[in-house]
């Protein structure tokens, strides 16, 4: 049966001095699975997995013995193949097959680095998801192939798979290097004769393969293959991917770097470097591609959002970079900047000296190439660290800071228009608080409080944000989730939300997993609790606090804010639709003293917000308390007394005990 061959080369960044890992010898142990049991080198998911013989009528013949590995439902096999080094190329190949009467499941090939090999066997647990190398072994994905699919219409057949992957630059030299072969769907995939080796072809192209903005005066350059001896190189290039004659430019022999002269703007190039080795054999190279930079202005550096102190003691700096740029004009909120404290308004770098509240806004840079072609940069926000809004709900819905406007009750009251479903009750800060009534009340029908004037004013969360509110859940019988406050654009989605999840606190910024407290007590206890959600862009971490103390964190960077978002502040529900009404509505819950800050509030300040209202004291962490022997959150004479009481105790045999 004829087999087709598919090859792909992942894009890599040019490096002058390559470094090669030590592959195991052989790199793959048991490559063709000729025993129907593992030899201990491969690890596999125990479910949706088998080793099948090609003597079965539905299994195609394999030229590499008798046995195939068969897996589906995103199952996998993996093996340690050596140790990690940066920017290392590996040629990976195997044969894949389709079982008769079954759909082909697709195939993906990945490299991982790091982790603990001693726990690799645990990854076969049925409950472990396909990203087992991350969750169990502790490895990190460093390269991944495209998905390979069955290339012909035969009901049963095979095809060759070949891919060159690069280990990249994010890793620790000497860490374990892993190969993962995985089914890409719930359908079955056959695999045999897995091979990993260092390439014999030229590597490390410059411009990098896939480069979209190569300089028009770039030279073609590459590095020698890590295996074999080069007698000469042969360069072939052209402007389309069809490498059949005529139309190729061939340079034989050629020495890197090769001077291309001045290439035209905005033009694609496809090129290949063949190696003739010391045996006279020609090793055909990979096909690389790049595109020269357009003649119009192009940005390669966009301005970044800035968060500064609100007292005018810090400067804000915005910078752009790019190609084919002659003139610069910085804009604030769409208008040319004329402020006295702004410098560099016609350069690539704008500085706003002593930035303050009046300087807040959206900054862009309009550039041109001096020939009538212009381009505006992406917008960047300047924000000051401040309390943006505070709603104390003292029998009104006003923002005491005057920034986000008054709230409006959105209360359908379809059950009974004479029953207010949002009212006021005794508060914990001041005299009153909002009350979202119980579903047990006659005529109940959920309502929310919206702040329409807040639209477009809350897109700073990726620079840092803190949201806090006092809440009291009066009944443990309420639904599993209730939204305390959210910032949401009905078309673009939410910026963040703070809610109750069963008896715990939950906080999320867009693009990150949710931080949910895991407390021993159910917060639906009829008592006031302070909920606080924080996003820290420096640590790239979300955190949720309950009653002034850290309750949970989630690591990761929030999705950059969309400065076009018209997200509004909403209390008591996540969103409203005609079909479903209010999603995740609060009920039988009081809310008081809602605050929104434009920065990460310090843990000490969060604790103080709690103790200022409730009194008492809090131990916020155990930093520097290694010698706090009596666990009272301070080191004092009482701890010294405990230490002295055990002074000269000795448990050495026979010096002290005999």
UniProtKB/TrEMBL annotation:
It comes from Anaerohalosphaera lusitana. Residues 294-383 form the Ig-like domain. It comes from the Bacteria. Keywords: Signal. PROSITE patterns: IG_LIKE. Residues 1-21 form the signal peptide. Pfam families: I-set, Laminin_G_3. This is Immunoglobulin I-set domain protein. InterPro entries: ConA-like_dom_sf (IPR013320), Ig-like_dom (IPR007110), Ig-like_dom_sf (IPR036179), Ig-like_fold (IPR013783), Ig_I-set (IPR013098). The lineage of its organism: Bacteria, Pseudomonadati, Planctomycetota, Phycisphaerae, Sedimentisphaerales. The keyword Signal applies.
């Amino acid at each position: 049966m004829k087999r087709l061959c598919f090859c792909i080369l992942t894009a890599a960044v040019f490096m002058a001095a390559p470094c090669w890992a030590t592959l195991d010898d052989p790199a793959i142990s048991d490559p063709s699975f000729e025993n129907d049991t593992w030899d201990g080198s491969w690890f596999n998911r125990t479910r949706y997995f088998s080793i099948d013989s090609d003597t079965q009528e539905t299994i195609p013949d394999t030229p590499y013995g008798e046995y195939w590995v068969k897996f589906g439902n995103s199952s996998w096999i993996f093996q340690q193949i050596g140790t990690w080094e940066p920017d290392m190329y590996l040629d990976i190949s195997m044969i894949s097959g389709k079982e008769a009467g079954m759909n082909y499941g697709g195939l993906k090939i990945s490299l991982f680095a790091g982790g603990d090999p001693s726990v690799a066997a645990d990854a076969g647990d049925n409950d472990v998801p396909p990203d087992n190398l991350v969750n169990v072994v502790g490895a990190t994905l460093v390269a991944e192939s495209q998905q390979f699919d069955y290339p012909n219409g035969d009901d049963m057949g095979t095809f060759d798979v070949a891919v060159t992957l690069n280990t990249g630059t994010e890793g620790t030299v000497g860490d374990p290097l892993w190969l993962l072969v995985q089914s890409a769907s719930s359908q079955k995939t056959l695999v045999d004769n897995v091979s990993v080796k260092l390439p014999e072809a030229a590597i490390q192209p410059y411009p990098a393969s896939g480069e979209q903005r190569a300089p028009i005066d770039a030279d073609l350059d590459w590095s020698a293959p890590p295996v074999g001896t080069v007698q000469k190189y042969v360069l072939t290039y052209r402007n389309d991917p069809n490498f059949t004659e005529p139309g190729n430019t061939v340079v034989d022999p050629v020495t890197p770097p090769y001077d291309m002269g001045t290439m035209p703007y905005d033009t694609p190039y496809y090129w290949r470097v063949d190696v003739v080795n010391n045996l006279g054999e020609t090793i055909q190279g990979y096909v690389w591609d790049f595109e020269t930079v357009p003649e119009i202005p192009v940005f390669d550096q966009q301005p970044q959002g800035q968060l500064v102190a609100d007292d005018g003691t810090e400067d804000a700096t915005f910078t752009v970079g790019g190609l084919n740029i002659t003139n610069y004009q910085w804009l604030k909120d769409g208008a040319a900047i004329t402020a006295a404290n702004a410098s560099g308004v016609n350069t690539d770098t704008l500085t706003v000296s002593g930035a303050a509240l009046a300087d807040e806004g959206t900054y862009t840079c309009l550039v041109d190439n001096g020939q009538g072609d212009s381009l505006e940069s992406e917008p960047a926000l300047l924000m000051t660290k401040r309390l943006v809004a505070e709603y104390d709900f003292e029998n009104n819905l006003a923002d005491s800071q005057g920034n986000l406007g008054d709230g409006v009750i959105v209360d359908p009251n379809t059950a009974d228009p004479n029953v207010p479903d949002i009212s006021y009750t005794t508060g914990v800060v001041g005299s009153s608080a909002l009350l979202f009534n119980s579903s047990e009340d006659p005529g109940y029908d959920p309502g929310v409080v919206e702040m329409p004037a807040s639209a477009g004013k809350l897109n700073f969360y990726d620079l840092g944000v803190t949201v806090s509110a006092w809440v009291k859940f009066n009944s443990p019988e309420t639904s599993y989730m209730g939204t305390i406050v959210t910032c949401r654009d009905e078309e673009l989605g939410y910026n963040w939300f703070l809610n109750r999840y069963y008896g715990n606190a939950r906080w999320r910024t867009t693009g990150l997993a949710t931080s949910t407290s895991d407390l021993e007590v159910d917060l639906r206890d009829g008592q006031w609790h302070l909920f606080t959600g924080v996003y820290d862009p420096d640590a790239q971490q979300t955190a949720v606090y309950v009653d002034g103390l850290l309750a949970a964190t989630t690591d990761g960077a929030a999705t950059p804010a969309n400065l076009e978002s018209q997200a509004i502040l909403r209390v008591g529900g996540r969103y409203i639709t005609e079909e479903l009404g209010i999603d995740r509505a609060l009920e039988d819950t009081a809310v008081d003293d809602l605050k929104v800050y434009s920065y990460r509030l310090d843990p000490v300040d969060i604790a103080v917000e709690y103790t200022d209202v409730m009194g008492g004291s809090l131990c916020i962490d155990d930093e520097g308390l290694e010698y706090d022997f009596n666990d009272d959150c301070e080191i004092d004479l009482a701890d010294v007394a405990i230490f002295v009481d055990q002074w000269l105790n000795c448990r050495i045999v026979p010096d002290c005990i005999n």
